[in-house]
Amino acid sequence: MDNYGQVVSSNASALATNKVLRNTYTLLSMTLLFSAAMAGVAMAMQLSHGAALGAMIGAIVLVWFVLPKFENSAAGLFVVFAFTGLMGLSLGPMLSYYLAFPGGADLVMTALGGTGVIFLGLSGYVLTTRKDFSFLGGFLFVGFLVVLGAAIANIFFAIPALSLAISAAVILIMSGFILFDTSRIIHGGETNYLRATVGLYLNIHNLFVHLLHLLSFFAGDD
Amino acid sequence: MDTWMKVVSAAFLGVMLIFIWPTAMHWMKNGPKGTKKDWQGAIIPLAAMVGFVILLIMLVKK
């Protein structure tokens, strides 16, 4: 009887985990499409860099202060779409800048495709091996703090080599966060699909932005 | 970049740093520690990713 109880409990836990995973990937694909559409809107409206910065700050404020209040209700979905919409808007001026260069469209598409391959490859690795990557947490968060500090300094110093190093580090850290976040979902460390979606969305967003920066530098456009 | 945008961007990143600090410290102190085997399991996909990025760079390099 005890064994039966353990099997039922284990099956219920696996079903709950699969549900979180399915909901996360469904919402993630929808929000990525919405974000791309909003980036298109921002480009069509020729949004300024100042407005893009405002959109990004608004998006982060939504995630930090509004989402925690609604993360267990249907209203949380609207917050997630508002957040990804604002993040998409913030991409507009940057994409317009890169697309203005000769071969810029190829560069953007290469960065987009590269981001997709990295995300699918790393997620596929975690889902196939089912390894627990929660031990990466301390390393990734501290690495991200160091990168943030370097990014603040480089806003004023504007050293191209440091900017390149920051982009390379962000690509590595976001790839680590993809392993970490996916592993947390499948091992029950993250049970809220709205939070899981926002986490993975931020990983993909940062990965794309910094991969584009890195590629444009080597292509001679930056 | 205009000076006001530099200041706002730096302030934004600074606030982000302050917000993430407690989470980072929590994971540093209380997060699970990986064994040598765990780290090897993480290095393989990350090394493959680095190789892929280098391939992309070689593709776009003029």
**What characterizes the major β-sheet of chain A?**
none
CA gyration radius of chain A, whole angstroms:
19 Å
Tell me the domain tally of chain A. Answer: 1
Q: Helical element count of chain A?
A: 7
User: How many β-strand stretches of chain B?
Assistant: 0
Strand content of chain B: under 5%
Give a count of the beta strands of chain A, DSSP E runs of length 2 or more.
0
Whole-number count of domains of chain B: 2
Radius of gyration of chain B: 19 Å
Large-scale geometry of chain B: flat
Spans of at least 5 consecutive residues with low confidence of chain B: none
Helix content of chain A: over 70%
Keywords:
heterodimer, A: 222 residues, mainly alpha, B: 62 residues, 2 domains, 2 helices, 85% helix
Structural account:
The complex is a heterodimer of chains A (about 220) and B (about 60). In chain A, about 85% of the residues lie in helices and about 0% in strands. With about 220 residues, chain A is an all-alpha fold. Chain A has one domain. Chain B is mostly helical and about 60 residues long. Chain B has two domains: about 1-30; about 35-60. Chain B has helices at about 5-30, 35-60. The model of chain B has no long low-confidence stretch (mean pLDDT about 95). The chains are: A mainly alpha (about 220), B mainly alpha (about 60). The interface of A and B includes residues 56, 122, 132, 135 and 151 of A.
